[in-house]
Specification:
about 325 residues, hydrolase activity, Protein YicC, 6 strands, YicC-like_N, 3 domains, alpha+beta, YicC/YloC-like
């Protein structure tokens, strides 16, 4: 058996699968990073600002910051966010502009109650101290918060805020889609680099296999010439060469090359289809990384072009890691 016969009788060479040409994205690819802000007015004396920030997260994680007295509105907003967004850590903020009524509202009855309590405590403990006005003004309830006591104000505010939720989400998604397009372009570049590395490994595969076979054959020949039948057990040359061929076949990276190309093609199709591809893309990259690790383990310690293949395999892992960093921010 020769190196040539081994190569032809083992696994077929992994022919390069054609990389699909880029096609129009059917659905937007959304990043989980975005920000939007909108403002509105209920009346001359009451306005509001809505802001919504999104960053990457494994699940949908909404956090709302709203003024006291808006609890029922908060429930509506939270439900709306869950119905219209899929993943991401969300920070929704509602701030109010009270117009000419802006500013702290002094609550004299609360202050009087604090002063009475101070005097009673001083008298009870025989203390000769005067109240500290600065300290009292910092106590809870001294200044009124922005809550709603007028039904008209509340109903108008709730209707106005709910009416701005659709435009707010649209503005957020516009930024997320723009960022998602940039991420998709970067992922396409990573796939192009990865595909080139796989092609280089494929071009070195046959010469590596032949060199490995020749190396093992020479070692076997040296053993046979020195061993003879001294042990009393004849050493069958053909049997040993078959075992050598099996070892070489097990070191073949044809299957890893084929699977890497299939995963790259699948990834291109995901990018072309668009939509919610984050988790699928991450899974594909995990599979690619597994194939790259297997390729490296098979070529470890093999002569010939194995060192070059090892360098290429490490390059694959670097590109896969770059892609995984980008994918973590995809919806």
């Amino acid at each position: 058996m020769t190196a040539k016969s081994l190569t032809s009788s083992s696994k077929p060479a992994a022919h390069r699968a054609p990389t699909p040409s880029p096609s129009p994205i059917h659905s937007p690819i959304y990043s989980m990073t975005g920000f939007a802000r909108l403002s509105g007015r209920v009346s001359d004396n009451l306005g509001f600002t809505l802001s919504l920030k999104s960053v990457n997260h494994r699940f949908l994680d909404p956090h709302l910051r709203m003024p006291p007295g808006t609890e029922s509105l908060e429930m509506r907003v939270r439900r709306y966010l869950k119905d219209n967004l899929i993943r991401g850590h969300l920070e929704f903020t509602l701030t109010l502009d009270r117009g000419t009524e802006r500013g702290a509202r002094y609550n004299s009855s609360i202050v009087s109650a604090y002063l009475d309590a101070f005097r009673d405590a001083a008298a009870e403990h025989h203390l000769d101290q005067q109240p500290d006005l600065n300290a009292i003004l910092r106590l809870p309830g001294v200044f009124a918060t922005e809550s709603f006591s007028m039904k008209e104000d509340w109903e108008a505010l709730e209707a106005a805020v709910v009416g701005q939720l659709d435009p707010l989400i649209a503005a957020l998604n516009a930024m997320r889609a723009q960022e998602g397009s940039s991420l998709a372009a970067e992922l396409s570049r990573c796939l192009h680099q990865l595909s080139g590395l796989v092609d280089q490994v494929a071009s070195l595969r046959d010469s590596m296999q032949n060199a490995y076979f020749e190396r093992l054959s020479q070692r076997v020949a040296a053993l046979l010439s020195g061993a003879g039948t001294a042990s009393g057990v004849p050493m069958e040359r053909e049997r040993i060469l078959q075992e050598v061929a099996l070892l070489v076949e097990r070191s073949d990276v044809a299957e890893e090359i084929a699977r890497l190309r299939a995963h790259i093609e699948h990834f291109h199709l995901l990018l072309a289809a668009g939509g919610e591809i984050g988790k699928k893309a991450d899974f594909l990259l995990q599979e690619m990384n597994r194939e790259a690790n297997t390729l490296l383990s098979k070529t470890s310690g093999i002569a010939g072009n194995a060192a070059d293949i090892t360098t290429l395999g490490l390059g694959m892992k670097a590109e896969i890691e770059k892609a995984r960093e980008q994918v973590q921010n995809l919806e």
